[in-house]
């Protein structure tokens, strides 16, 4: 599969964001460990961050789904380009 450089840059940025969100989740957990606030944070903040970063809900968009969409768009772009080249020949 051929990925255009601008698409790869977007994917790389999304993967970096995923890493940073996962790091933030750990920081939040560590910071609230042993407090009464951890349960609330896990239910409302951490769960949403984790879902967005790691795709726990198949019905919601998340980083992984965006990456799939970007790759799909590049495949479609390459196929259309190939069709146009074939039409010229």
SSE inventory with pairings:
Blueprint: H1 5-32, H2 37-54, H3 63-88
Helix pairs in contact: 1-2, 1-3
Give the averaged pLDDT, no decimals.
92
- Give the count of helical stretches: 3
First-residue to last-residue Cα separation? 23 Å
Overall 3D geometry? elongated
Low-confidence region ranges: none
Summed up, what is this model?
The chain has 89 residues and is mainly alpha-helical. The chain has helices at 5-32, 37-54, 63-88.
Can you tell me about this structure?
- The chain is an all-alpha fold.
- It has helices spanning 5-32, 37-54, 63-88.
- The chain is elongated and about 70 Å long.
List keywords for this structure.
single chain; 89 residues; mainly alpha; 0% strand; elongated
């Amino acid at each position: 599969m051929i990925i255009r450089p601008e698409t790869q840059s977007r994917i790389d940025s999304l993967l970096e964001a995923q890493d940073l969100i996962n790091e933030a989740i750990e920081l939040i957990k560590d910071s609230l460990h042993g407090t009464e606030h951890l349960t609330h944070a896990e239910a409302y903040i951490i769960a949403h961050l984790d879902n967005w970063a790691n795709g726990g809900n198949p019905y919601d968009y998340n980083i992984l789904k965006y990456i799939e969409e970007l790759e799909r768009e590049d495949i479609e772009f390459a196929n259309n380009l190939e069709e146009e080249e074939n039409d010229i020949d």
